[in-house]
Amino acid sequence: MSRKRKTGLKDVYQILEDVRKIRIEHVESMFMRSAPCSKYTENAISDRLIEGTSSLGSNLLQNLKIAQDTLRDYGHFREADALTDVLINCAQLPELGGLGLTEHTDLTEEQDSEVLFLVSAWWEALNSADRAKAFPTPLRTRPEGRRGMTLSEKIFSLHDIDQRGSVAPGDLIRVDVDWVIASEASWADIIGHGVNVQPPSETRNIP
After folding, report:
1. Final residue of a domain: which of 132, 159, 180?
2. Looking at residue 200, what is its pLDDT?
3. How many domains does the chain have?
4. Residues 96 and 191 in one domain
5. Same-domain pairing of 23 and 102
6. Which pLDDT belongs to residue 93?
7. What is the DSSP string of 72-125?
8. Contact 108, 99 (CB under 8 A)
9. Chunked in runs of 10, what are the mean pLDDT values of the chain (207 residues)?
10. How big, in percent rounded to 5, are the helix, strand and coil portions of the chain?
11. Same domain, residue pair 128 and 156
12. Which of 52, 64, 80, 135 could make an S-S bridge to 71, C-beta 3.0–4.6 Å?
């Protein structure tokens, strides 16, 4: 059981580093010095002893609370608040869209994976919010050498994570998470209306 507990908390910290570039350096052992901070990590949390981390939770949800307290101690309040949303979602009844889990539930590997997916999604949403605050400045004229784009291509280009400035047919791009969700929701709404609207006919508009 102790190995599973460590692994659960370690996985949370690994997601934190992968998604938000924040490294918890005491993750390998709560009381042993860990490896040096990666050069790709923007925010490093010291590997000094952190009060309360010696007592790991009995399941992943309890370990999320430990990670939440650690993040707050070091001023990463947005990431900690995101874990609050994850815990609320986990506790919600399945009929209300939650997972129906508690801090005393003996989680299966599948349930652990679902919880970790939620953690990753909520932290990735913070990245999306950060990108939304830094949209590129609109251009008054088209840069020399850039092909003209259709309206759809301009929309794709605006939401391109790499911000290359233009897209062309056949390009493979990554777009913001929020844009994907909005796009899927829009299509679902369009399809719903299409089912309810009768197909056009030559006499449809005749009184």
Report:
1. 132
2. 54
3. 2
4. no
5. yes
6. 92
7. HHTT-HHHHHHHHHHHHHHHS-GGGTS----TT----HHHHHHHHHHHHHHHHH
8. no
9. 58 92 69 41 47 63 93 94 94 90 89 93 89 73 86 84 85 76 67 59 50
10. 50, 5, 45
11. no
12. 80
